[in-house]
Design brief:
The protein has a domain at 29-117: Deoxyuridine 5'-Triphosphate Nucleotidohydrolase, Chain A (Distorted Sandwich). It is built from 1 helix and 10 strands. It has one helix at residues 68-72; strands at 6-9, 30-33, 38-40, 45-55, 60-65, 75-78, 81-82, 89-96, 102-104, 109-117. The protein is globular and about 55 Å long. The two termini are 34 Å apart. 21% of the residues are buried.
Length: 144
């Protein structure tokens, strides 16, 4: 299934998100590029502009995800949910977890945009939940 997403350039250097690999074994997410150079100090979090706005159809949204190479440098994304009705500039919330300043340059691929189908759930308040094998076991409960 394909989603038709409109892209508006808000900055002359902005790039349309694109998949590095397409086809049956293609990428799960499209690359997002920054439009300016930034230096992130250790522990710093910045909203990095991409220079684009998206026109999502109502049945889709998107998540902003890490790029593996950047994560290895200590750069990770936070707060990356794009609702279908949002029409403002897409910014990548980037945090430097390393002990050294990290730079991203204009044109760099700074994150990935994963398009997801929007499902609206109905939440029902109950007194108890059914029992399962996992139950209330949390992190690490599968032995990994």
């Amino acid at each position: 299934m394909q989603a038709h997403i409109l892209v508006q350039k808000l900055h002359p250097e902005a790039q349309v998100p694109r998949y590095a690999h397409r086809g049956v074994f293609g990428d799960l997410a499209a690359d997002l590029h920054c439009v300016s150079t930034w230096t992130l100090a250790p522990g710093e979090t910045l909203a990095i502009p991409t220079g684009i706005a998206l026109g999502m159809p109502p049945e889709f949204g998107a998540l902003i995800e890490d790029r593996s190479g950047m994560a290895l440098r200590g750069l990770t994304t936070l707060a990356g949910v794009i609702d279908p009705g949002y029409r403002g500039e897409i910014k990548v919330v980037l945090t430097n977890l390393s002990d050294e300043a990290q730079m991203v340059f204009a044109g760099d691929r700074v994150a990935q945009l994963r398009v997801v189908r929007r499902i609206e759930a109905e939440f029902e308040l109950v007194e108890t939940l059914d029992r399962t094998l996992r139950g209330i076991k949390g992190f690490g409960s599968s032995g990994m």
